[in-house]
Write a structure and sequence with these properties.
The complex is a heterodimer of chains A (359) and B (349). Chain A has 359 residues and is of the alpha/beta class. Chain A has 11 helices and 12 strands. Chain A folds into 2 domains: 122 residues, Alpha-Beta Complex (Aspartate Aminotransferase, domain 1); 228 residues, Type I PLP-dependent aspartate aminotransferase-like (Major domain) (Aspartate Aminotransferase, domain 2), CATH 3.40.640.10. Chain A is 34% helix and 14% strand. In chain A, helix 4 links the parallel strand 3 and strand 4. In chain A, helix 1 runs antiparallel to helix 6. Chain A is globular, with a radius of gyration of 21 Å. The relative contact order of chain A is 0.17. Chain B folds into 2 domains: 128 residues, Aspartate Aminotransferase, domain 1 (Alpha-Beta Complex), CATH 3.90.1150; 209 residues, Aspartate Aminotransferase, domain 2, CATH 3.40.640. In chain B, the strands form 3 sheets. Chain B has a 7-stranded mixed sheet, with helices on both faces. In chain B, strands 9-10-12 form a 3-stranded antiparallel sheet. The chains are: A alpha/beta (359), B alpha/beta (349). At the A-B interface, helix 2, helix 3, helix 4, helix 6 and strand 11 of A face helix 1, helix 2, helix 3, helix 4 and helix 7 of B.
């Protein structure tokens, strides 16, 4: 199996796994304590969580705090529903975790259009009365890097806060420095599943969605897992230490893969892009058949969440693709642990299988 | 040689069972996204559904299982998305229920913290826990469920403390947390008798809980539940042992005469604040707690003991002792010895 679906989830870094093990102890060691208990094992667990929090915070701008959540989806829900928002402006290519939550919030939703390059205009008009502007850092389907600094400034000029879904960019790019709220997911940066985070700029007030024991400063109740936090922290520290190295590796893989798919059309900007995301189309391509021909290559036809639905991608539609073009698109995602040889092998086989379809 | 610490705070969290740890590590190696359609994703999906089925089987649950990040989230889903409005809650619920229940009526409880089933009938959502996390008191949930249903309502049971130890109650919605029964922190479930009882939110878990599924957590939760609770008889013996000894030394047991989960006991040391007891126990290598872990830093008087009409003075002298699978008679003997020592220190002062 060759895994080329890094936008859906990423392999757990060995360092993250190792950081979790001490907190997955049985009764022979104290590493299982509830970090909210005041006894010594509890305080030790709490200290591990604070170290992890610092490591995650180091990926994010200064002047805010990190709240651990169960996922990035929960972080986005907290950011959107935790404020009394009357009007939200969000890009047409946001993840469902933003668009569906905005809809569920009851606020008016104004969509910011995306160009055929998959980019929101940096000077997009923010309608009067908008409280919250939500634009993702890196799109999960096509990898385009949004002009979040400009959009954050535009949001602030309009009197709105700026929420950035940084799930696909965190640990890979410098953070959206001017955002007010930033959502992250550990498993997209080689950490464990089951944990995410919301970064909140100092002074931004939120109301909790999950009430209870009052953990995370009352913003998110529920016992925190020292293991998941430690794994997230180790993955964040590793991503930070390797940021340039990972980006160089991905650029090298990208160049090689692009060369193999020379006759294919790239969906979304080639320049303003995280290059670990290669979203390509070829007219007439039967993607379902391609996938069934290549069962030992894990690639995708859009986001994992929507992949069972058979709906055409809302992102590809937003960048102006006809449904037939959207349905003849594939996403190849790679990163830190992808080896050049396996990527070349997979790309060559995908290209050959497509050629065998006569397209 | 440093003496091993004695952990008597299993109501806060429990050590990870070896079987759960093995399942978790296995899950870490199967890191594909269960919602991806490729072979690895489908493999992860199959493993997730297998874990779901095993959990339902181990619990004897016929309805649906929604994975969540823990019991707090499961309760939040039930309390905010049930199709019936929240009508009433017991006053001894965990904060994870009470903080969602500002507008709801508080049911009366007696001096042992028990709800009267006949008085719980409401035409709406009623939330009553299975086991109190501070005292171990077990509510008569089957009778409460019958009364609530007869009135056209639904019963939500917070089973965070009882699940995996007691049979599930006959409730309509049930919240549980893996780390209270030897599974990992960060995974729990909301059990739903019928999808129609909840409003969907979109996303994963059949549209009832959005967010990438925590497959390692689900596998470990299933493995922990399957280990069973054959050790509870031992826990009951240990509790009799320490409670009798402590009563003989001047201690008082909360709700001693009503059915309680064998693992949890709350005891008062007259004249010594819980905070002072905790510091002494901790410095002598014993982890116990005053009330729930969540509120234990706060030094607020327990709302549970308050609802049971215990005065604030005595209530502030109560600690919680909770044993687990690995607790042995020697651990309990040492706890009793330290308890007596602290109590004598007070008498001497």
């Amino acid at each position: 199996m060759i895994y080329l679906d890094y936008q859906a989830t990423t392999p757990l870094a060995p360092e993250a796994r190792d950081a979790m093990l001490p907190w997955l102890a049985g009764p022979e060691a104290p590493g299982f304590a509830n970090p909210h208990s005041p006894h010594r094992p509890g305080r030790t667990a709490a200290a591990a969580i604070e170290l992890a929090r610092e490591r995650v915070a180091a990926l994010l701008p200064p002047g805010g705090r990190v709240i651990f959540t169960g996922s990035a989806t929960e972080a986005l829900n907290l950011a959107i529903l935790g404020r009394k928002t009357r009007q939200i402006a969000g890009s047409t290519i946001e993840h469902a975790a933003v668009l569906d939550t905005a809809q569920a919030s009851g606020a008016r939703l104004h969509l910011l259009e995306t160009g055929s390059d998959g980019l929101v205009a940096p000077d997009a008009a923010i309608p009067p009365g908008t409280d919250l502007v939500a634009v993702m850092h890196v799109n999960n389907e096509i990898g385009t890097i949004q002009p979040v600094a400009d959009l954050a400034r535009a949001a602030h000029r309009a009197g709105a806060l700026f929420l950035c879904d940084a799930v696909q960019g965190a640990g890979k790019l410098a953070p959206p420095a001017e955002a007010d709220l930033i959502a992250l997911s550990a498993h997209k940066l080689h950490g464990p599943k089951g944990i995410g985070a919301l970064w909140i700029r100092d002074g931004v007030e939120l109301a909790p969605l999950i009430h209870g024991g009052g953990q995370e400063g009352g913003l998110r109740s529920g016992t925190l897992s020292p293991a998941l936090c430690a794994g997230f922290g180790a993955a964040a520290a590793l991503a930070q230490a390797r940021m340039a190295q990972d980006a160089a590796h991905v650029a090298m893989l990208w160049d090689r893969a692009r060369a193999i798919f020379a006759g294919w059309t790239l969906n979304g900007s080639a320049d303003q892009r995280w290059r670990g995301n290669l979203n390509l189309r070829r007219d007439g391509l039967d993607v379902a058949r391609l996938m069934s021909d290549l069962r030992d290559i894990a690639f995708s036809a859009g986001s994992a969440c929507a992949s069972g639905s058979g709906r055409p991608s809302h992102v590809l539609r937003a960048i102006g693709l006809a449904d037939t073009q959207a349905k003849s698109s594939i996403r190849i995602g790679f990163g830190r642990y992808t080896m050049l040889g396996e990527l070349e092998d997979a790309c060559a086989r995908i290209a050959a299988a497509a050629a065998a379809q006569g397209v | 040689m440093t003496p091993t610490r004695i952990y008597l705070d299993h109501a806060a969290t429990t050590p990870l069972l070896p079987a759960a740890r093995a399942a978790l590590l296995d899950g870490f190696a199967r890191w594909a996204n269960p919602s991806s359609p490729h072979a690895e994703g489908r493999g992860a999906r199959a493993a997730l559904e297998d874990a779901r089925a095993r959990i339902a089987a181990a619990l004897g649950w016929q309805g649906e299982v929604i994975f969540t990040s823990g019991a707090s989230e499961a309760l939040a889903i039930a309390l905010t998305r049930c199709r019936l409005p929240l009508a009433a809650v017991s006053p001894v619920e965990h904060e994870a229920v009470l903080r969602h229940a500002d507008g709801a009526e508080r049911l009366a409880v007696d001096a042992d913290g028990l709800v009267d089933p006949a008085a719980a009938a409401r035409r709406g959502l009623v939330a009553v826990q299975q086991v109190n996390n501070e005292t171990g008191v077990i509510q008569p949930l089957d009778a409460i469920a019958a009364a609530v249903r007869a009135a056209g309502g639904l019963l939500l049971a917070d089973c965070a403390q009882g699940a995996g130890k007691l049979p599930l109650p006959d409730a309509d919605l049930i919240a549980l947390s893996a780390h209270k029964f030897g599974g990992p922190i960060g995974i729990g479930a909301l059990l739903v008798r019928d999808w129609a009882m909840l409003r969907p939110s979109g996303g994963q878990e059949r549209g009832y809980r959005a967010g990438t599924e925590n497959l390692p957590g689900a596998l470990a939760m299933a493995a922990a539940l399957e280990r069973g609770a054959d050790w509870l008889a031992n826990a009951a013996r240990l509790r009799r042992q320490w409670e009798v000894s402590i009563c003989a030394a001047g201690g008082e047991i909360v709700a001693a005469e009503v059915p309680r989960l064998a693992t949890i006991g709350a005891c008062r040391m007259p004249g010594v604040s819980a905070a002072a007891q905790l510091i002494r126990f901790d410095s002598l290598g014993i982890s116990v707690s005053a009330g729930s872990a969540c509120s234990s830093g706060s030094l607020r008087t327990s709302h549970v003991l308050g609802a049971m009409s215990m005065d604030a003075g005595p209530a502030s002298e109560v600690i919680r002792v909770s044993v687990g699978r690995e607790t042995g008679a020697a651990d309990i003997a040492r706890f009793v010895e330290v308890w007596r020592g602290i109590a004598r220190g007070r008498a001497a002062a």
